[in-house]
Amino acid sequence: MSTKETSITLNDVTIEFPVYDADRNFRKYLLKPNIGGIMQAKSKKAKHTAVTALRSLSCHFETGDRIGLIGLNGAGKSTLLHTLAGIYEPIGGELIVNGRVSTLFNTNIGIDPDDTGYRNILTCGLILGMTLPEIRRKLDEIIEFTELQEYIYLPVRTYSSGMLTRLAFAVATSIEPDILLMDENIGAGDASFQAKAAARIRNITSKAQILVLASHSESVLREFCNKAMFLHKGELIAQGDLETVLAEYNRHVAGTM
Ligand SMILES: Nc1ncnc2c1ncn2[C@@H]1O[C@H](COP(=O)(O)OP(=O)(O)OP(=O)(O)O)[C@@H](O)[C@H]1O
């Protein structure tokens, strides 16, 4: 665990995606849909469109905060998770993250298909921020959790997608982070594995000091979160305690139907 207090601070953070291959007609019209970030045509010279996925976002979270990210499709929830994980770099503003971060989305990142499951546990563990002694300590438990048995010594390219999910999930959830970033849609294998996975997720989320969870499910949000942020087209519409923000979100959704 880090010596500094675990915290997340965003000051006026903006994330923009340049899109170079948009249809020319699309660039003329630039619709204003209810979902997604804000689209803008860049200068004629730049010849591209940009989607502002997060606009001037400011917030602060500390130990004990379990934040649900709420919003329609394309509101910016995944973008925010990726930004907090250091995968996307803001084009403006400041992002300060104190604490060991772990992600439960895109869990396959870092897996080398030509390497065995066994070696992938070691390399992915290192990528995720574990030390080698820490991984070695957890190795047996991770292998057992995957239930891959002797397949663990075969190259990952020989795995079915469910077997790959088991491996990636087992490694990703073996880290004990200060800050856990999670998308509710982490596929977790077949039905029997899903039940094991759910118990493991509960365990890891309860240990994290800060949890940020993107979800469309009120019951999932109520189970895991005490606070929420409501994003719409990349802008922060409301933040605060979960029930207040959910009510605001539901009023908004009712108003758009
Ligand atoms: N790699 C990318 N390139 C261009 N635009 C992107 C990219 N990733 C996301 N966007 C855009 O950014 C906006 C926010 O997307 P994001 O995935 O963060 O939404 P979300 O709230 O997680 O949506 P959902 O509920 O559908 O998962 C959308 O308009 C999306 O089209």
Automatic annotation (TrEMBL):
Domain of life assignment: Bacteria
Q: What SUPFAM superfamilies does this protein's entry cite?
A: P-loop containing nucleoside triphosphate hydrolases (SSF52540)
Protein's recorded name = ABC transporter ATP-binding protein
| UniProt domain ABC transporter: residue ranges | 39-257
Its GO CC terms are:
membrane
The record's annotation in SMART domains points to: AAA
Q: Which InterPro entries match?
A: AAA+_ATPase (IPR003593), ABC_transporter-like_ATP-bd (IPR003439), ABC_transporter-like_CS (IPR017871), ABC_transpr_TagH-like (IPR015860), Bact_Polysacc_Export_ATP-bd (IPR050683), P-loop_NTPase (IPR027417)
UniProt entry keywords in alphabetical sequence:
ATP-binding, Nucleotide-binding
Signal peptide annotation: none
Q: From the UniProt record, which GO molecular function terms apply?
A: ABC-type transporter activity; ATP binding; ATP hydrolysis activity
